Amino acid sequence: MKYKSNPYRNKLEDVQEFWKSPDEANEPREYYKYIERSEYLVNDIFIEKLGINCKSRILEIGCNCGRNLNYLEMKGYEDLTGIEISKNAVEFSKRAYLNLNANIINNSVENTIKKFNTGYFNVVFTMAVLMHIHNESSWVFEEIKRIASEHIIIIEDNKRPYKDIFTRKFSNRIFLQIDEHKTNKYFECADKYTTRIFERSVFDYV
Q1: In the chain, where are the structural domains located?
Q2: Contact 199, 172 (CB under 8 A)
Q3: 9-28 pLDDT, tens per residue?
């Protein structure tokens, strides 16, 4: 079943079915263990580099068991939303983080993202999720630009030209890449993952 997770070679429905019930390596109890990844995301990026306000409205696409959202909440962030296709991961989150107040939507990003108003979230972020978006769903990247009003943060592989994708003009919204670096200390196969931060330009076209 593992081969069905390949978004470049398999059907959209097969990829989605895989992530609804993934293999053992991608089960929520595996994601739950890597707290250092959440520490890096929140402490190094959200707080130290960007100084993102705790009142900001934040969306994580593909939040799995909610580890990142829980850590954000522990650091004082209050308005948190996640999208997660796996029902098992959402149920695991309820058991693992009893006090988590984030709104986790159990659905695919394709079925969810268009429902948000333009600029609804101050920050949209992903961690090893966009790399699994099917080629037929590449329109999702434009939707991310539509709903993000300030920052887009992605920690992904390098198979797609993310800099070109997210700095391409979308309607009157322009994002600039303000940082790009390897995540060497926090991920296996360090050369595989790159952190990219995009900030909405103050010179949007009218």
Answers
A1: 2-200
A2: no
A3: 577 877 777 777 776 777 88
